[in-house]
User: Which sequence fits this backbone?
């Protein structure tokens, strides 16, 4: 009789025994100071908190929420929640009070851990007065909540190796809400563990079985990309040294401390890193230097070191499409950057590029165990070992998203090449018709625009209009000077040239009438971006609707909002 696959807690208990004195996590605590936690220390605190949670009499599977930026105690709390027989609900640390309240209410959370936060005063009104809370050590000052350390001091660690059934729900992952109300995605221990094991195996194949495995955890652990590829893989691997970032202004120092061998990010941040390099050295000059034998390698190493990425053996990009030119640029400076494709609903375990299988514009090949087919309409249908059990309290959605034979309807459109590489060609729900009566897929055009060094983000729209248009957010280095007449003239000329290039390369019904330069930056705070920095398309379109008639009556190719 075959033995059951090991679940995440099984791996963790093995590390507790076999790697007791190995440092697992390094947490900055301010003023350049850090605290290291070995596997034994991590599990001692997790076991004490598990005892406390169990003493509260929470029902099996009770949802326990966390509202915190990444920190060592997030990991400890997750392990404690699992050992106590409960389910984790992580809330994005940048969410508004309304969304915090929605997630807590919808998940019927029994308790909330409050951790590192920048806007707790604004989020606190979203927490029901009746909900018990516990503050992590790095929680905002003046929180007035029972503290983690107080509980550690008076509580005995839970004994033994409390197990969970494969079908128990380990995590309830709420989506970032780019298309409306966040949905609660249920992942069982069996499927979350299978994805984590698969990711660990993929990473080890790339980095090397015995290579040092250091990561900096800074993308939100409330998002599936970080939760699976950083935390999940680390819990399985055991040899990982996980570092955390302290704050935005210490990020470079945090990177230099960690010297990660694996580094993952999202396209918008990869673009920001590049623009930071260009702010110090113009792109044309850097390109000339990179072409010079010997000197080019020295310059590339200096750029990687300046980014804090000189030790990286593998870099990954996910969560949204990344312009192929941006990947090519990072490879030019010697950073092995590969794009992947996954979603909350499959534990971010579906497709990834690697040294053997990669091509500009493609997101890679299927990871082991992943099945894919394309519907007649070109929609990507996936079966993954990390596939969701379903949506919490939404059997109506379950009926919509699963085919009769169990494939998940991703909502993404794609095509495959003969080597099995997948290309994303747009979102089915993002396709729109102009007055010409043909569908326009915005994503490929946006990728072309976003590849320009002057641009940080763009949005292509034009529902029912004579032609499509694009809104453009200038790069962070240009935005402070966007009112200067000379700069405006330069940007207008460059964007006009970009518009002509794009229109010459697309079908006539996809051509853009204009590029509109956005005055107010899109951000999480003003509701234009999700917590994972995806564009809230419908929200932005609604915001600018009163301006459309004026824009379309203007004869200029580049407008300034």
Assistant:
């Amino acid at each position: 009789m075959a033995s059951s696959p090991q679940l995440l807690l099984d791996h963790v208990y093995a590390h507790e025994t076999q790697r007791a004195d190995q440092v697992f996590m390094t947490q900055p605590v301010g003023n350049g100071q850090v605290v290291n936690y070995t596997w034994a220390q991590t599990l001692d605190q997790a076991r004490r908190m598990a005892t406390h949670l169990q003493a509260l009499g929470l029902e099996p599977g009770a949802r326990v929420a966390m509202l915190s930026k990444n920190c060592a105690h997030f990991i400890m709390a997750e392990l404690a929640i699992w050992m106590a027989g409960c389910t984790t609900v992580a809330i994005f640390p940048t969410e508004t009070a309304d969304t915090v309240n929605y997630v807590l209410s919808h998940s019927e959370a029994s308790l909330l851990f409050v951790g590192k936060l920048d806007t707790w005063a604004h989020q606190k009104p979203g927490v029901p007065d009746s909900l018990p809370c516990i503050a992590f050590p790095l929680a905002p000052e003046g929180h007035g909540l029972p503290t983690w350390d107080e509980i550690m001091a008076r509580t005995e660690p839970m004994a033994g190796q409390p197990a969970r059934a494969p079908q128990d729900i380990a995590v309830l992952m709420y989506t970032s809400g780019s298309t409306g109300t966040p949905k609660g995605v249920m992942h069982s221990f069996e499927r979350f563990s299978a994805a984590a094991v698969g990711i660990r195996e993929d990473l080890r194949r790339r980095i090397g079985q015995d290579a040092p495995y250091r990561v900096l955890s800074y993308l939100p652990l409330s998002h599936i990309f970080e939760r699976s590829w950083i935390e999940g893989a680390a819990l399985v691997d055991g040899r990982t040294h996980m570092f955390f970032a302290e704050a935005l202004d210490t990020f470079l120092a945090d990177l230099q401390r960690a010297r990660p061998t694996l580094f993952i990010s999202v396209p918008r941040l990869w673009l920001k890193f590049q623009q930071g390099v260009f702010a110090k050295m113009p792109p044309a000059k850097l390109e000339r230097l990179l072409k010079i034998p010997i000197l080019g390698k020295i310059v590339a190493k200096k750029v990687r070191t300046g980014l804090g990425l000189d030790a990286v053996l593998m870099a990954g990009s996910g969560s949204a499409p990344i312009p192929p030119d941006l990947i090519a640029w990072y490879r030019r400076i010697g950073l092995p950057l590969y794009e992947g494709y996954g979603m909350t609903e499959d534990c971010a375990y579906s497709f990834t590029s690697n040294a053997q299988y990669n091509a500009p514009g493609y997101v890679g090949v299927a990871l082991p165990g992943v099945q894919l087919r394309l519907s007649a309409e070109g929609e990507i249908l996936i079966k993954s070992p990390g596939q969701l059990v379903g949506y919490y309290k939404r059997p109506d959605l379950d009926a919509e998203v699963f085919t009769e034979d169990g494939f998940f309807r991703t909502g993404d459109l794609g095509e495959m090449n003969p080597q099995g590489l997948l290309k994303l060609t747009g979102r089915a729900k993002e396709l729109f018709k102009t007055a010409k009566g043909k569908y326009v897929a915005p994503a490929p055009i946006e990728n072309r625009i976003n590849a320009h060094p002057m641009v940080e983000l763009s949005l292509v729209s034009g529902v029912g209009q004579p032609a499509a248009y694009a809104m453009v957010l200038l790069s962070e280095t240009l935005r402070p000077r966007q009112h200067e007449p000379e700069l405006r003239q330069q940007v207008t000329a460059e964007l006009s040239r970009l518009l002509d290039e794009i229109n010459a390369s697309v079908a006539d019904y996809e051509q853009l009438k204009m590029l509109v330069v956005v005055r107010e930056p899109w951000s999480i705070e003003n509701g234009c971006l999700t917590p994972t920095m995806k564009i809230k398309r419908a929200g932005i379109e609604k915001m600018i609707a009163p301006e459309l008639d004026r824009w379309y009556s203007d004869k200029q190719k580049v407008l300034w909002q």
Remarks:
- The first strand starts at residue 23 and ends at 30.
